[in-house]
Description:
single chain, binds heme C
Amino acid sequence: MSRAVVAAVALTTTAACTQAPPQVSSPVFTTARPTVSQAAREFFGIRPRPVQPIAFPHKRHIEKGLTCTDYCHESVTKGPVAGLPSVKTCMICHDAIATDRPLVQQVANYQKTGIDIPWQRVYGYTQAAHVRFNHAPHIRANVECATCHGGVAQQTVAERNVDLTMGFCVNCHQQKNAPNDCLTCHY
Ligand code: HEC
Ligand code: HEC
Ligand code: HEC
Ligand code: HEC
């Protein structure tokens, strides 16, 4: 990051992002950031560890030849949001597959009671972060899911083991000549 860009950050922070917490704006590009940002996160309670209503085994499904974009996250290639599958999506297969397993019976029970499975978000920003993200251009540019979400394909319940900080986004945008002004990612 050049001096000019750092200066621009300092200048534009107040102009473009007045609603972002001011105390964490300048440490963004300093070595102190990880601690400050972690402290900020804890303070805002942004990232509690999610507990899923059903321990969905990602790995098992990938091993059966499914890909992330089959059924469950198919909107990822089309627009901003990857989407979390409704119980109807699960039942496309589990009406018939593995119906004797207790976990699958729990899935079927959601379907019967007409309540959708209350999946907890694993990745995502709070409204207060004013982050704008769009999946589709990344998929078009052949950025792998794993770059931003780690090895979900090898996990049971999806774990958050990539920290999607601003530096993470900005560094790649710089390397790939993707747009990098504040309003690309903030509103
Ligand atoms: C395209 C088909 C398909 C879809 C859609 C699908 N599954 Fe599966 N699921 C499978 C297959 C195949 C298995 C492996 C069954 C086996 O081991 O015999 C499996 C296994 C499972 C298991 C493990 C069962 C056990 O204890 O052995 C669970 C739990 C499960 N699925 C839940 C879900 C949920 C929840 C959804 C919706 C989010 C879903 N599945 C969507 C095909 C699917
Ligand atoms: C460049 C980074 C990046 C790539 C590549 C990427 N994602 Fe994401 N993903 C994100 C971000 C950032 C969020 C949170 C977005 C938000 O809150 O608006 C997210 C959210 C999600 C969510 C919602 C998670 C939740 O718990 O609510 C799913 C599902 C998801 N991504 C699936 C995928 C899949 C599948 C792929 C590959 C086809 C993929 N993503 C590729 C960055 C990425
Ligand atoms: C590994 C590289 C990489 C990472 C990490 C990454 N991006 Fe991107 N991003 C790109 C590329 C490449 C494009 C496509 C640029 C194009 O279409 O010309 C893009 C495009 C975008 C766009 C659409 C820009 C536009 O106006 O067309 C947004 C918004 C965006 N990224 C936000 C983010 C955010 C927020 C993060 C962090 C969570 C992030 N990106 C992480 C590589 C990356
Ligand atoms: C490529 C995407 C991207 C660009 C460009 C970008 N940001 Fe961010 N920014 C993010 C993401 C993602 C976060 C949320 C990070 C988190 O929650 O860990 C963030 C967070 C912030 C925060 C909150 C403090 C923090 O560290 O969490 C401020 C302030 C901020 N950005 C200011 C700016 C300014 C000013 C610019 C222009 C110089 C800018 N951002 C450009 C992606 C971007």
